Protein: Exocyst complex component Sec8
Amino acid sequence: MRLDPATTYLPTSVHYPNSENNASYAKEVEKGISNLLLNLRPIKKENLIRNDIKLVLLASLSDSLEFVADFVEG
Structure:
């Protein structure tokens, strides 16, 4: 089974703190996510897709690559 790219950096074992630490844990997680998002490179204007045909082709290519990856892993 393929992992979603968005979850590849998450730890394999998730620790769920007890209810006493939930607020501080939530703030820690929020701060970590904020730092990750702030460190991402911005999307360049020339890399945006404005053409509907190119967008459809890109979506089709993405689906095809996912199918091939699932076939290879299976």
User: Anything to note?
Assistant: The chain has one domain: 19-73. The chain has a mean pLDDT of 77. Helices lie at 22-38, 52-73. The radius of gyration is 19 Å.
